[in-house]
């Protein structure tokens, strides 16, 4: 049985990966979707040409991994694609976020880094030549960010891990792509806080286009997928300029 596994499938880019996966892979038997909001996952069935298997659960808790692991043991699927899209961010200074809720920053690290790592650990034994892993990093991975410090650090982890994995798994023919978009119009901002920066609002991308590019880049075996000219420029800027200067400039904005 050939499957795709997609976390964060109940909204935003994860949901869009579910919609597009059936067109990207013509021979998928099932898509396994993971998120907390079951009714959202159920409603996706109508939009998807491939049958869905739903794992509704919190990736910050153990139960959903147990269910996923049992599913793998029972069905012994051939995982053609794993998309790690579950994640959240919170804007504000480190101290502001910590005083709002002490759990937010550790939870952000646990979801964006630990959950993604655990999903790869569980899935890799069932992947083979031509399988692909797509990890949702962010343009925030390119350099440290004032007012988004923990989030940017978690995404730097995702980018770094993805690049190393891409190199380690090349000999097995498994493709790993880190997706690094700038702002994308999803529910992300309901959790992180609304965007106030007019420049970021101006460069807001649409989820279907970002996901389409990510799938195309993965097919081209690209390690990193960056959507849009402004984010490509930001990536080059972050490579050329000292990060100390970028942080100073952010302070002035
Ligand atoms: N939107 C942007 O501007 C942007 C830019 C760059 C990168 N990204 C990254 O792209 C990824 C997708 O974000 P998005 O924009 O599509 O945001 P989104 O619409 O808020 O989707 C986030 C997904 O993660 C799931 N999720 C959150 N907490 C979870 C938990 N504890 N357990 C299981 N699932 C959980 C949510 O489902 P439930 O709530 O149903 O659990 C939802 O399906 C994230 O990793 C984000 O950091 C986003």
UniProtKB/TrEMBL annotation:
UniProt GO cellular component terms: cytosol
Record flagged with keyword NADP: yes
GO molecular function: oxidoreductase activity
Pfam family, one: adh_short
UniProt KW keywords: NADP, Oxidoreductase
Family according to the record: Belongs to the short-chain dehydrogenases/reductases (SDR) family.
Listed name of the protein: SDR family NAD(P)-dependent oxidoreductase
Organism: Candidatus Mediterraneibacter faecipullorum
């Amino acid at each position: 049985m050939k499957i795709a596994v997609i976390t964060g499938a109940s909204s935003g880019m994860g949901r869009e990966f579910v919609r597009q996966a059936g067109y990207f892979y013509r021979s998928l038997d099932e898509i396994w979707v993971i998120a907390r909001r079951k009714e959202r996952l159920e409603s996706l069935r109508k939009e998807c040409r491939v049958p869905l298997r739903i794992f509704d659960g919190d990736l910050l808790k153990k139960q959903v991994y147990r269910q996923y692991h049992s599913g793998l043991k029972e069905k012994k699927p051939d995982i053609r694609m794993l998309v790690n899209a579950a994640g959240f961010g919170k804007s504000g200074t480190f101290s502001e976020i910590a005083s709002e809720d002490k759990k937010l920053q550790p939870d952000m690290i646990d979801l964006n880094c630990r959950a993604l790592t655990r999903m790869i650990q569980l899935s890799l034994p069932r992947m083979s030549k031509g399988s692909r892993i797509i990890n949702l990093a962010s343009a925030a991975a390119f350099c440290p960010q004032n007012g988004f410090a923990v989030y940017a650090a978690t995404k730097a982890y995702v980018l770094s891990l993805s690049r190393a994995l891409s190199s380690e798994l090349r000999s097995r023919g498994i493709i790993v792509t880190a997706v690094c978009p700038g702002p994308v119009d999803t529910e992300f901002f309901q959790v992180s806080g609304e965007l106030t920066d007019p420049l970021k609002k101006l460069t807001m991308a649409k989820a279907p286009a970002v996901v389409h590019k990510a799938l195309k880049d993965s097919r081209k075996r690209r390690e990193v997928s960056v959507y849009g000219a402004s984010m490509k420029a930001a990536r080059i800027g972050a490579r050329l300029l000292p990060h100390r200067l970028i942080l100073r400039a952010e302070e002035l904005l």
